Amino acid sequence: MYAIVEMAGQQFKVAKDQKVYVHRLQAEEGKKVTFDNVLLLADGKNITIGAPAIDGAAVEAKVIKHLRGDKVIVFHKKRRKGYRKKNGHRQSLTEVVIESIVLKGAKKAKQEPKKAAPKKAAAKPDDLKKIEGIGPKIAKTLMEAGINTYADLSKAKPAKISEIIADIRGNHIPDTWPAQAKMAAEGKWDELKKWQDELDGGKA
C-alpha cells in the first residue's frame, strides 16, 4: 500500500516505514504528526483518487530529527558590468518516518500551534525595501514576524533578524539594517542615501 500525500506544502509518494525529508515542521523530535491531505491511495489493484483529498484518510508519521539540507550555491553574473554575486543556501528540513496509512476514521493529531506574530494596527507599515540589503521576500518575512516599520527594525538586533530570515536563500548580512532603519525613521534620507552608496547588500 502506498499514498500520495501533501506534507508541509510538498507532495510525496509514501509507504509504511519509509523515511521522508520535508520542510521544517513545528513538532518536536519524537512527536507524532498526522497528515490528512491524502490525494491518492493504492492498495494492490484498488486505487482511490481524492477530489482533491480523500475523506477520512491520513498518513501518520513520527518526527525523527530536525536538520539542514546540503548547501546550494547560486552564482549571479552580469556580462560587461563587473557584477558577480555568490550566495549559499541550506534548507531547514525535518526527517520523519511513516508509521501507518489510515483509510477511515482518521483524526487530526494535536500539533503545537504556531505563535502568531503580534499585530500593530496603529502603525502604518513602512517600505522596508528602502533599506539597503532588503528585498521583497525579506521585507514580507520581516512583516510576518511583526517588524512592520522603520522604528520596529531599528530596535531589532541583527542576530534576531538573521534568525527570522534564516530560510531565505542568500548570504544576507543585517548588521547595518537597524542603523539604516533608525535614520529612515528620523527622516535623514539624504544622509542615508549617501551611506547606502558605500554599502554592499547591507554590509559595510
Fold and architecture overview:
The chain is of the alpha+beta class and 204 residues long. The chain is built from 5 helices and 10 strands, in the order E-E-E-E-E-E-E-E-E-E-H-H-H-H-H. The protein has helices spanning 136-144, 150-155, 158-164, 177-185, 189-196; strands at 2-7, 10-14, 19-23, 32-35, 38-43, 46-49, 58-68, 72-78, 83-89, 92-102. The strands form 3 sheets. It has a 4-stranded antiparallel sheet with strand order 2-1-5-6, with no helix packed on it. A 4-stranded antiparallel sheet has the order 3-10-7-4, with no helix packed on it. The termini are far apart.
Question: How would you summarize this macromolecular structure in one to three sentences?
Answer:
The protein has 204 residues and is α+β, with helices and mostly antiparallel strands.
Question: What labels describe this entry?
Answer:
four-stranded antiparallel β-sheet, 32% strand, single chain, 10 strands, 204 residues, 19% helix
